[in-house]
Amino acid sequence: MDKTFQLGWEEWAAFPKLGLPAVRAKVDTGARTSALHAVSVEPFGPLDKPQVRFIMHPVPDKPEIEVVCSAPAVDRREVTSSNGERELRWVIETPMKIGERTWPVELTLTNRESMTYRMLLGRQAIGEDMMVSPGQSCAQGALSYELYKDFPRRRPVKRPLRVAILTREPNNYSSQRLKDAAETRGHVVEMINTARCTLALDAADPRVFYDGKPLPAYDAIIPRIGASMTGYGMAVLRQFTMMGAYCLNSAEAIGASRDKLYAHQVLAREGIAMPVTAFAHSPKDTNNLIAHVGGAPLVVKLLQSTQGRGVVLAETKKAAESVIDAFRGLEANFIVQEFVKEAGGADIRCFIVGGKVVATMMRQGEAGEFRSNLHRGGSATKVKVSKDERLSALRAAKALGLSVAGVDLLRSSVGPKILEVNSSPGLEGVERTSGKDVAGMIVEYIEDHVRPIARKTVRRKKAVAAKAAADTAS
């Protein structure tokens, strides 16, 4: 027969899946249900599988310590408190550890700010082999609030996240793969059309509205911003950052990668090899541009080009002069680049997630086509990259500040040369070629790096209070 598990009239509990290492609980056999302190309780996700996110202040006399928790909701029920008040509460189920024993318990979420104990352990959570000793305190040993001394810098616990994918193409392969990968891991994903967002700038309470309705606080944002929406998309991304969301790639990094001239200046500053590049404003400098990159053949590339559009190979000096004059006539911004002939119309895409090359592929253009983009009929095959190629790709992504990037490089006679760094790389080609779950790796990276929104909440409360005081004074 198993030994009876002793509980005192108060105990220290831990909730590993909520990220709570120590919660002081009052054991009350007179109460049927158990309750956990929670504020800013917010349901999210599909109606048939709702999740609940809430903020917990585990240390009664230190409200500045906040832990953001998420868990699946199992019910929403009316609970009558000891003073007779009725309250409709969300109910979650999560593992609880007291002493050496761990078991699942149902917890109702309610504001216990004025209570000494942040948790009430009711009889429903007390097993048949457990006995409560009213005269004993912490029969299973004591923990300490010192466990929170590193919060919120401690690596966040894996929890259900509310994620937004910022995209105007919710049905394309990349968006759907990211959505499926996140939902498979228990997260809730919403597709947000960048163009339909409205920004409300307020120091106390910055918000993003979608079709006139305020968007909730998201744990993470995955930006899939098209080139035509770069400027506005960066503004939307900055707004979500102010609201406390973790953004997979920052607005600044995306802007740097989209400005091809600036991106090449950054790479040059870091000593990263790339095709020789030239840029000029005056029409009188056409010959100088051609000379700077070693003459024809050369490549003329629009600064806003994507998927190979706006990229022209000029095989003779005369052709180069004609293309440059044509682009100038359209008042287009462009750069001129050295043509790396030995690459043979092929480039290598290194897909980077969190400072690691997680997948690679070689893209080969069609016969007679120097552009290798898959959107232009190019083909993709598996490829093993060298140490130098891997290092060059990683340095390029790091120089531009990108956590996730597709780095395109050429194999030249003098080593790898970075061609371009993409801040919203497509997943279809690299996943099908490499056979790797790149979308899953991206979601795992988000799980490891999503930050608590607690500090932002405290700042917002202070800002709101300060604004209210100023309004009253005026």
UniProtKB/TrEMBL annotation:
Binding site for Mn(2+) 2: 420, 422
Gene (name only): rimK
EC annotation from Swiss-Prot or TrEMBL: 6.3.2.-
Binding site for ATP: 301, 338-339, 347, 371-373
Swiss-Prot/TrEMBL cofactor(s): Mg(2+); Mn(2+)
Protein name: Probable alpha-L-glutamate ligase
Gene3D superfamilies: 3.40.50.20, Acid Proteases, ATP-grasp fold, A domain, ATP-grasp fold, B domain
SUPFAM superfamilies: Acid proteases, Glutathione synthetase ATP-binding domain-like
Span of domain ATP-grasp: 264-447
NCBIfam families linked: PRK10446.1 (NF007764), rimK_fam (TIGR00768)
Gene Ontology CC entries for this record: cytoplasm
Pfam families (UniProt xref): RimK, Rimk_N, Zn_protease
